[in-house]
Fold these 3 entries.
Entry 1:
Amino acid sequence: MTKIQIPDFSLTPHIDQVGVEERASRVTKRSIKNETKINGLKLALNMIDLTTLEGKDTDGKVKQMCYKAQHLHDVYPGLPTVAAVCVYPSMVAVAKKAVGNSGVKVAAVATAFPSGQAPRDVKIRDTKFAVEQGADEIDMVISRGKFHQGEYNFVFDEIAAVKEACGQARLKVILETGELVTYDNVRRASDIAMYAGADFIKTSTGKISPAATLPVTLVMLEAIRDFYYKTGKKIAMKPAGGISKAKLALHYLVLLQEVLGEDWMNNEWFRFGASSLANDILMQLMKQRTGVYQSADYFSID
């Protein structure tokens, strides 16, 4: 395997803010109808990571979420499952048993989620525990304080260490783009994460605002494209937080298609971190099928 040359992260390309925002805005003006819309909605549904990350999470709540992940709306035959369920490390074993052989992955947040404010050895232990419990994927958060201090090598080394601790589990690196402030910082953090070994780059924890946006996602998708051209290695993408409407999810899929193409249009390479999105997609699918909207009461919350 060809060794990847690590770049100087202080020389990350400058992002044209006006250009990025104008291109993202054009995507929202696209209209998708009929069979194409139905296929897009089902694809988006299959890309969702259903998530519960609360201090009050119980075994029962996690089991209910895992049931929904496999039975999104049984009155609509042929629906896919979601891609994964995402929980705290302490709930991984419960989730793993509940999803069984359904094909739904179990992801665990780790590394002192959502703040990332913990010593590296604690983050490594957190990651290893989640993997030992059966996690298929690990969602880590970068040390934004170190990033803002310009300690890019620290951030790089920490990601690389967590990646090693993941073993066979895939690593999603959360940039918390709402705290990075500028598109230049989003691009730099994306590059650091990918060169350090991330399997996914992810916008947000969902715990702060702003979370995912189309312009930020565009910057990250273009970083993935450039990394692929340079290294031949595919990296996955996960916008998370603030995506609650089916129409917006379709806009994200249009952006994905335009920047990265058909090879990324599946849940191995793209995810939505947006639990509330599932119900809106289900409502839209039922509208397409029956001609009327069902009440939200027909869809489970968890």
Entry 2:
Amino acid sequence: MTPLLIFDIETKASDHEVGEMGLLMRRQQTGGSEFLPHYLQRVVTISCVLRTEKTFKVWSLSHPEATEAEMLQRFFDGIEKYTPQIVSWNGGGFDLPVLHYRSLLHGVTAPRYWDWGDDDRDFKYNNYLNRYHTRHLDLMDVLAGFQARANAPLDALAKLLGFPGKLGMDGGAVWDAFQRGEHDAIRDYCETDVVNTYLVLLRFRKMRGELTTEQYDAEINLVRASLEEIGADHWFEFLEAWPS
């Protein structure tokens, strides 16, 4: 079984770009876009699900326990170690470009991730960087048929499929939560997002015929049991919102 690494990030404005942000705020006030450019985002946490043949694990590389540089390096070290298929929701449009810019800033090394096939022939035809390869599966992009106008929000689609969706926070609330020092709340929110993504992935794999109904049910039961075993409050809330 190829390891699966599902990931999601939460960000805030980069501290050292306050002057640039002032200009952006001015553009917003005069009718410009409200979206802060990728290169001005700072990574607050990276949450992951790792599924191997024997393991289901949910965890976060969280600020303030680690610096941004340490979080980024640990994330790419995981790719270096496992060469997993990585899975995201809008990772191609947001998460990965942010990780690229911040890793460039911090001098992070990630040779496996950046391999276009120069050192491994398999990566020439299936690498992390090509939008239409599956070594990185941007689930939102694929389900929309690579048509931006058909994109669906993770929260809405997860709830449509009977999964919990977002609980208590959304991406727009991260900045204020960070300012209040609510780092655990941001981490918990990001972790529930990444598990929602994994659950949607399971339904997608069943649709593709990668999982039988029995295998899908077993995987769902594994997720439930694993979250119960963790025993954290946000997982109890998640399970309560996810009826059997």
Entry 3:
Amino acid sequence: MDVRGFLQAAEERGWLQRVATPVSPRLEMARLIHALGEELTLFEAVEGWPSGVVAGLCGRRRNLALALGVDEQTLLATLVAALRAPSPLEEVATAPCQECVVEAVDLGALPVLTHFAEDGGPYVTSGVLITRDPERGPNAAYHRLMRVGPRSFTARLVEGRGTHRAWARSGGDLPVAVCIGAPLNVQLAAAMSPEPGVDELRIASALAPTPVVRALGSDLLVPAESEIVLEGRLTHDLGDEGTFVDLTRTRDVVRQQPYLIVERITHRREPLYQALLPGGMEHKLLMGLPREPTIYEAVSAVCECTNVAMTPGGGYWLHAVVQIRPLGPEDGRRAIEAAFRGHTSLKHVVVVDEDVDPTDPAAVEWAIATRFQADRDLVVLEEQPSSSLDPSARQVPGEKARTAKMGLDATRPWGADPRAYEVVEYEPVDLARYTIRGDAS
């Protein structure tokens, strides 16, 4: 579902709020998005921009479920199915994203947000960057872009990931296309981490119909229903990138990163720019939700996995809870080790039984309190690959961060009497039978 179709469907459900007061993209809009609770919002009057800006597109699971045409409870199963069976792409000759073509590029004309006063510059945070690896083929992924000139950004490339590998192998400038306001299924697929060589756009196609069109200046295929496409190239010249407030709401360091030169902009008529708040719920959900199916697949390879939940306290990135149906005494430990393989940036994981809701922090803590023994059920792994988003990890410029990882097996001890670990519930009563007076608060 493209952005416009989604907004219409969301407004029919009463999910969309509109801001008619003129708002500045510099600091004001980010603060207002945060103050509004990151709800789905259309800014109708944006200083220096003739069209609208939309925020909160992917900020709720219900939004993603609506865009995919599924129930919210089946999102994980839907993502797992798409990950297992990507679909072919339908290439079209003409596309909405190429209704207008701008050759005289001026990135200052776009309402790129400055989120915090100490930011290194205005940042594109919702851009899905399309590349083609000379060995592994097409790739779609999110990369923050700091505007540094009328035609240029510095692009944050995480070392060892798909875009970085393609850039390192290119031997010269790497053609890229940055899609802003891509259909929601594309945004979700671009946040996933399939096996190398699997095109994320084909995963998007498995989630919902995804027509693609060839970029005007390269052979790259881009989502035809994107709002804005920036065509250009990643160079091997480097410049400062940062400061940037990242997923964990801490400031990332300033790095030397490649310049991205924009050579052409194509867009729909009256294009909608997409704002995505760094460190906010939409950022967390877009990064974390696609990790759930990869962890689920990895754990399912070693035991019976029934659910996975990334947690808000871990930024939907560093912490997860895995629910399993143990069939042997080592399944909890196997699940811990597999979860770290399923998401290499994962730092801490808790494994629970089927009777514990992995999305309920109190239930998970209860399982740790009643089923976990540190001398028996704790797994600690030293010097493991980590995430640059963890400020406590050991960070070496140009290298993968390193950390210690911890897993807690909070499943019932194998062979124990299950009744000893059951929650005993009170029998219900009919309150209508009782006369109750006073304020119990």
